[in-house]
Design a protein that fits this description.
This protein is of the alpha+beta class and 413 residues long. It has one domain: Orthogonal Bundle (Cytochrome p450), CATH 1.10.630. Helix content is 52%, strand content 12%. The protein is built from 17 helices and 12 strands. The chain is globular and about 65 Å long. The N terminus is likely disordered.
């Protein structure tokens, strides 16, 4: 593939590019395409050097920070250094174990309500339904608002902006934001700023993330966060809080429809098996399929020289499908995540939420959410996959099923 083709593939078909690079790199290696130089880390034991031991030598890539900033601002996902550490300390208590466990009832209620609208024999895009459901859950648990009446519009806006971001990142120049994309940002801002205004006006501490952000104090200035700072954190959690789980659930239902024995087992066994299914779906189809870090200075990974401004790729897509890490890696086997088997996995071979100091702050929230969604819905309905062809991949910021996952609903008696 010529350099221009590789550069286009980097954003047009990143899964294929990763697999082509991975086929040539046993542990760590470099690929240079014109002015672009990429270092691929492909073995678990080298991962902590990038994400933990030398984390100060890296930051998120400049392209992501440039083009995602109009939407996410300086929130937790894009902030760096001391700002990231301070913001993480502000948000972390909302995702402590004892608090996350209190969200379970709301998650279950939202899942019950979602499936109740699916009639027997209906054709449903379960990927779309999972986006709607997880938006509702995030709204209720983190911000104590009901977003279901706006879920379809907000879901479309988020999809439009992800598409626009990927288009922009593959171009060598910055385009002005299209009117339709700006309108999508404006609608999302209207929702988030509306939540902030209403909560400030009420003066009520609901004990949720929004209340915590509004009551928190900046350690440097001693002042409360501004509406814009609260907006950046709320927008980041609002988007990231539903997106990863929605894709994990879409792929989970896809895999379960392909393996009816496991679907039946999910209905019988409920919550414990639902957690195994969630983890195995995120192994085969990791929503965060690629971690990219740009080197701030010349540095080393196990003696391998990494030059300043080079981008280091750590690809869960490759690690999760490597036979050195997982036996028969392409087989859907939820029992890989029985506690005793999971404990034997190589460290950093499984990275559905990243790792190190930037590990996803909502990882336990997402796992519990997935567990509750699968076990709750499976008690009421079965599903038959309507597509005869394998579902394609649509790698945006997260890994989407291309054209959704259309199923026929079978309601249990």
């Amino acid at each position: 593939m010529n350099p221009i083709g590789i550069l286009r593939a980097l954003f047009l078909n990143r899964i294929r590019l990763l697999e082509e690079l991975g086929a040539k790199v046993p542990r760590i290696g470099r690929a240079t395409f014109g002015r672009l130089s990429v270092v691929l880390v492909k073995t678990p034991e080298l991962v902590p050097e990038v994400l933990i031991e030398r984390a100060a030598d890296y930051q998120k890539t400049a392209l992501l920070r440039l083009y995602a900033r109009p939407l996410l601002g300086d929130g937790l996902l894009l902030s760096e250094g001391e700002q990231h550490r301070e913001r993480r300390k502000l948000v972390a208590p909302a995702f402590a174990h004892q608090r996350v466990s209190k969200y379970a009832d709301a998650m279950r209620e939202q899942a019950e309500a979602a499936q109740s609208g699916w009639r027997d024999g209906a054709q449903v895009d379960i990927a779309h339904e999972m986006m709607r459901l997880t938006l509702g859950i995030v709204g209720k648990t983190l911000f104590d608002v009901d977003l279901l009446d706006r879920a379809a519009t907000l879901g479309r806006d988020i999809a439009v902006l992800q598409d626009a971001l990927m288009i922009q990142m593959r171009l060598p120049f910055q385009l002005p934001m299209r009117r339709s994309n700006q309108a999508a940002v404006d609608r999302l801002n209207q929702t988030v700023y509306g939540m902030i205004r209403n909560r400030r006006a009420s003066g009520i501490d609901n004990g949720d993330v929004l209340s915590m952000l509004l009551l928190s104090v900046d350690e440097e200035t001693g002042e409360h966060l501004t509406d814009e700072q609260v907006r950046d954190e709320a927008m980041t959690l609002f988007l990231a809080g539903h997106e990863t789980t929605a894709q994990a659930m879409a792929w989970s239902w896809y895999l379960l429809t392909k393996h009816p024995v496991h679907f039946a087992r999910l209905r019988r066994e409920g919550m414990p098996f639902a957690l195994q299914v969630t983890k195995e779906a995120m192994r085969l189809y990791p929503p965060a399929f690629l971690l990219a870090r740009m080197a701030l200075r010349d540095t080393l990974i196990n003696g391998f020289e990494v030059r300043k401004d080079e981008v280091v790729f750590i690809a869960p897509w490759l690690l999760h499908r490597d036979p050195r890490n997982f036996e028969e890696p392409l087989r859907f086997d939820p029992d890989r995540f029985l506690p005793e088997r999971e404990a034997r996995l190589p460290r950093f071979a499984y990275l559905p939420f990243g790792g190190g100091r930037r590990i996803c702050i909502g990882n336990q929230f997402a796992l519990m959410e997935g567990q509750i969604i699968l076990s709750t819905i499976a008690q009421h309905v079965g599903m038959d996959l309507l597509s005869r062809e394998p579902i394609g991949l649509k790698p945006l910021l997260t890994l989407h099923p291309k054209n959704g996952v259309t199923v026929r609903i079978r309601r249990h008696a």
